Amino acid sequence: MQSSHSSPLRIAQMSDSHLFADKNGLHCGVNVYQNLLTVLADIATREHIDYVVFTGDLSQDHTVCSYENFANAVYRADINVPVLYLAGNHDEYALLDKYLVNYPFSSAKFIENEFWRVQLIDSKSNTPAGNVQLEQLNKLDAIEKHQLLFMHHHPIDVGYFIDRHGLENKEEFWQVIANASTIKGIACGHVHSAGEYAAYSQQREQSVPVFTCPATSIQFDPSVDGVSALPVGPSYRLFNLFADGTLQSEAISL
């Protein structure tokens, strides 16, 4: 998908809505549908956002209605920029493609303007953990534009239970990334927490920042060995991508 904007290219990332068929369904005592509406309303009122990228785990109960609820929430918010999406470990490709079809939804897996190429990387596997088919990363090292990658699973350890369900082929992933010098950052969901990590590689002089996206649903308590919510509201992340390759990001909590 080509962008007509120059700089900055502004992207809102939201992730991990974990919806139920019942709009009043609770996840760790939290109404996740209402939280999604809160995030979407905030995105809709912010100026100069060019794209929204949803990085997966739309559904918690794996029902068709949860996908319908997500689509209707986006329509209700009157989002007027393209909404791209990835599958999380809870999601089904066929249901995403069936219900996320009308504008503003887009099945495109990249965004491009004069200075940047932003690519959505599929990491869904047959288990809750992730696995990136490395052919998706072919020719990243040949792209001369600045690059930002979005994915669902986290390619680094964050220090709590979700690491048991992280990216299984991290070593192979980073071997490819190390050779792509124009990659300015990697953004993921899955961890239900806002963080910024520096991933180093011997093959690369500079580290690659990894940005984890807080969830629209709940934020995990890292002190608990399992799913437990912190008293933090629905959240998402904003990226500003400048023509000179500078990348700025902030987490928004509501």
From TrEMBL:
Keywords: Hydrolase, Iron, Metal-binding. GO terms for molecular function: hydrolase activity; metal ion binding. It comes from the Bacteria. SUPFAM superfamilies: Metallo-dependent phosphatases (SSF56300). Pfam families: Metallophos. Residues 9-193 form the Calcineurin-like phosphoesterase domain. The keyword Metal-binding applies. PANTHER family: CYCLIC NUCLEOTIDE PHOSPHODIESTERASE CBUA0032-RELATED, PHOSPHOHYDROLASE. Belongs to the cyclic nucleotide phosphodiesterase class-III family. This is 3',5'-cyclic-nucleotide phosphodiesterase. It comes from Litorilituus sediminis.
